[in-house]
Design goal:
Layout (H helix, E strand, L loop, with lengths): L34 H7 L5 E6 L3 H16 L3 E2 L8 E6 L4 H13 L9 E6 H6 L2 H5 L3 E5 L7 H9 L5 E3 L20 E5 L1 E2 L10 H4 L4 E2 L2 H14 L3 E5 L16 H10 L5 E5 L8 H9 L6 E3 L7 H6 L6 H12 L6 E8 L6 H14 L3 E6 L17 H24 L5 E9 L5 E5 L5 E5 L9 E9 L4 E5 L2
Parallel strand pairs: 1-2, 1-3, 3-4, 4-5, 5-6, 7-10, 10-11, 12-13, 13-14, 17-19
Antiparallel strand pairs: 8-9, 15-16, 15-18, 16-17, 18-19
The structure holds 5'-deoxyadenosine and iron/sulfur cluster.
């Protein structure tokens, strides 16, 4: 089945953009003439290598950037060695992620002398800006995600041999849409419906790195979903930092729950996922949509961050433990079970042992199906940077280990109760071991299962669970 759409016209929405923030400046007069400039002069495009760090939003941004480059005539290659253009789409949510980028750039110190063009995209680009040129002068492009719609013009500048091109404007109401997206996952199509974030959690860089919240028109989203269904995708995942804060800019003014229902109504779509939801915008109509439309997956990722109302207030999370638990109760009262997952930060400035234990008791109370947990990491520009972060790394590490142990116990017990149950699985993996397959249930549980069938990838099958571990299930193909 054809998965790639044909190269098409690039949708470069210049009408809505501010004056270009592209800086045209030669690095040195001896700078090597880049391979992509040479290629462009000869009427051909080069090759690109794109490595992505961070979240699903970044993964999907990279799919769009790759689509844009392909439609411009570039070829994608598997290694930086084979590429004339090397791009890193970066993450700065925690310090470790940001450091990784600079160590990766260090590996390519020599590459610019080989005529390769190196670019930094995403959150580190936005956060560090032109500092990147100082720390890594072999970089030619620095572009944050709020400027991706100007990438075609930036590429033109790079192809013309410009050595310092920047896109660092975050003051925008436009979203990044491309005619062509090179999707990596052949079974599940990701789709950004809302970019940026207007919340102001005191520990988080996202409002600075991704800019203000802006929603994509429901007509454009639904058009893309119809195209995806025609291409053979049956599962779509709607993405946004706060996906349920969606505010349709078109006169239809669809609510998020209405959009979920409209996506599920598209012929050929069997599963609709969405992530990440913010508790404050998690309203009863979303649960009603899940209840009434089985195509909307029974899984909600609802980051809580802490079980202590005092810490939540210091985090500027806009809800209390009690209000969060009301949202959980709303889901637990639904007419079909809904899997709930979360994110937790331990060791936020001033978190006492008692407040940490409140987070543990929240885990006991909610009984999450899975969680992602992190040690607090102080980040540039964020309000919590000025709070005293006096807890030792050891203590943060201890709290993280205690939390993860507690959750492991919860997941062991929850998963054990699934043995004997049947689930529909979208098969997305095939093991090297004979007759072994894997896939996800609607509630986003991974199942490894045995089947004598010869080809199952991309199909939906019934699987009976025969065994469970904290993080996955095993089963048999139930015919
Ligand atoms: N330190 C630790 N974890 C963080 N997160 C966001 N910012 C920080 C930070 N400064 C976590 C939150 C968020 C997830 C994507 O990353 O839990 O939900
Ligand atoms: Fe960051 Fe808070 Fe926005 Fe999530 S809701 S992206 S944690 S500021």
């Amino acid at each position: 089945m054809a998965r790639q759409s044909k190269a098409g016209v690039i949708n470069c929405d210049l009408g809505m953009s501010k004056p270009f923030d592209i800086e045209l400046e030669r690095l040195t007069s001896q700078a090597p003439y880049s391979e992509i400039a040479r290629g462009a002069a000869a009427g051909q495009r080069g090759t690109f290598f794109l490595e992505t760090f961070g979240c699903q939003m970044n993964d999907h941004d990279s799919e769009k950037v790759a689509g844009l480059l392909l439609s411009r005539g570039y070829q994608q290659v598997e290694t930086p060695e084979a590429a004339s253009l090397i791009l890193y789409n970066t993450c700065s949510i925690r310090e470790k992620a940001a450091q990784k980028v600079f160590s990766r750039l260090g590996e390519y110190r020599e590459k610019q002398n080989e005529g390769k063009v190196i670019g930094v995209l995403g959150c580190v680009a936005q956060q560090e800006g032109e500092e990147i040129f100082k720390r890594a002068p072999w970089v030619s492009l620095v572009c944050g995600s709020a400027s991706y719609r100007k990438l075609p013009d930036m590429l033109t500048q790079l192809e013309a041999g410009n050595q310092r091109v920047t896109g660092l404007d975050t003051d925008t109401d436009a979203t990044f849409e491309t005619e062509v997206t090179r999707r990596d996952n052949p079974w599940r199509a990701y789709l950004t419906i809302i970019e940026g974030c207007d919340k102001a959690c005191s520990y988080c860089v996202v409002p600075f790195t991704r800019g203000p919240e802006r929603s994509r028109g429901s007509d454009s989203i639904l058009k893309e979903v119809r195209q995806l269904a025609e291409l053979g995708y049956s599962e779509v995942q709607l993405l946004g930092q706060t996906v349920n804060s969606y505010a349709d800019p078109t006169p239809r003014k669809m609510r998020f729950s209405e959009l979920l229902l409209a996506v599920a109504d598209v012929q050929g779509i069997r599963r609709v996922r969405f992530t990440t939801s913010h508790p404050s915008d998690f309203t009863p109509d979303i649960v009603e949509a899940i209840e009434g439309q089985p195509k909307i997956c029974d899984h909600v990722h609802l980051p809580v961050q802490s079980g202590s109302t005092r810490v939540l207030r210091a985090m500027q999370r806009t809800y209390s433990r009690e209000v969060y638990l009301e949202k959980i109760a709303m889901m637990r009262d639904a007419n079909r079970p809904i899997a709930i997952t979360t994110d937790i930060i331990v060791g936020f400035p001033g978190e006492t042992e008692f407040e940490f234990e409140e987070t543990l008791s929240l885990l006991d109370e909610v009984q999450y199906d899975n969680l992602f947990s992190f040690k607090y990491s102080p980040r540039p520009n964020t309000p919590s940077l000025s709070m005293s972060d006096s807890m030792s790394e050891e203590e943060k590490g201890r709290r993280l280990a205690v939390l993860q142990d507690r959750q492991r116990e919860i997941q062991s017990a929850k998963n054990a109760r699934l043995v004997g149950k049947r689930f529909e699985v979208l098969v997305s993996g095939k093991s090297r071991r004979e007759n072994q397959w894997s896939g996800y249930t609607t509630s986003h549980r991974m199942i490894n299962f045995a089947s004598q069938e010869r080809e199952l990838l991309g199909t939906y099958v019934q699987v009976r669970v025969t065994g469970a571990s904290p993080n996955s299930l095993v089963g048999d193909h139930a015919v």
